[in-house]
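S.,

As promised, the nicotinamide-adenine-dinucleotide run. Input:
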Amino acid sequence: MPDYYPVYLNLAGKRCVIVGGGTIAQGKIGGLLQAGCHITVISPDATPGIRQAAQRGDIVWLQRNYEPGDLEGAFIGVAATNVWHVNREIYEEAEGLGVLLNVVDDPDLCSFIAPSVVKREPVTMAISTGGASPALARKLRETLANAEALEWADLADVLAQARRIIKEKRTVIDPERWQCCITRELLNMVQEGRSEEALEVLLSQLQDSGTPEMCGDLAHCQPRTCQVRQAARDSSARHREAVR
Ligand SMILES: C[C@@]1(CC(=O)O)C2=NC(=C\c3[nH]c(c(CCC(=O)O)c3CC(=O)O)Cc3[nH]c(c(CC(=O)O)c3CCC(=O)O)/C=C3\N/C(=C\2)[C@@H](CCC(=O)O)[C@]3(C)CC(=O)O)/[C@H]1CCC(=O)O
Ligand SMILES: NC(=O)c1ccc[n+]([C@@H]2O[C@H](COP(=O)([O-])OP(=O)(O)OC[C@H]3O[C@@H](n4cnc5c(N)ncnc54)[C@H](O)[C@@H]3O)[C@@H](O)[C@H]2O)c1
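Predicted complex:
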């Protein structure tokens, strides 16, 4: 199995060709549309879902068999026919044109494979077993979707605001300091709707090396012996105990 390199692709405005109009093709459309692709489906028949998407104008459906040249101008493609030699032809065209291609039935012919995705806006977690077991990827997705750790995603907006403000000031914050400041208390504030207060607390803790409960010497922050981190760990443990 190849050693896949995980990436997040910006597909906004890019052309995507999906060959085949079955349930597997339909399953690929949602995520690609959400990413802003211009999708053309090429297939002599199509599921009701694909037909409806075409009627709404979300995608273009060309009701015919695949022909060489169909990938021309595409950035990304999916070969989702149930005919091996057709998927193989599409693969050869994609290789020649340098188009990224997912062949749903054949990992060896894929230049990319699709992960299982867990979302808690604006955070997404992509899970892959490298093709070993898609069923396991789904199991992990379903487990992680209910995992407490995913709640940290709720801090993303406040952290993004703090980051912007700090960038504007052209200040550099030690990466360890960021970790110290991402605490359960901060998360509680945000989840209780006190985001403005959370931003204030965060900015002061990030920037004020004199804050008594924070490490004084940023340059020598020791993650393993850090009291602030230990306090955050204790607080998380207490929280877990409380919700049990
Ligand atoms: C993540 C997900 C996204 C998506 O499909 O977009 C996805 N498969 C999903 C589900 C799923 N697919 C299959 C089952 C039945 C159980 C099982 O086989 O385990 C289930 C489980 C279910 O449906 O519950 C059958 C299957 N899949 C592949 C083959 C061919 C082969 O392995 O040779 C066969 C046999 C076909 C046959 O027998 O005819 C191949 C691939 N499937 C991948 C992705 C890529 C590797 C992902 C990775 O593990 O890293 C890869 C390599 C290429 C690709 O398609 O991108 C989606 C998760 C949905 C979710 O999160 O709920
Ligand atoms: N990757 C996965 O997760 C996964 C899971 C299950 C199945 N599969 C495989 O994916 C393939 C597709 O599955 P499905 O359930 O969507 O199959 P399906 O039979 O419902 O659909 C196949 C589609 O391909 C079209 N097609 C056939 N020949 C074509 C051609 N020459 N040009 C254009 N379109 C053509 C058919 O008209 C049909 O719309 C199957 O081979 C299946 O074994 C993959």
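The mean pLDDT is 91. The pocket of PQ2 (ligand 1) is lined by residues 27-28, 102, 104-105, 107, 110, 113-116, 128-131, 133-135, 137-138, 141 (CB under 6 Å).

- D.
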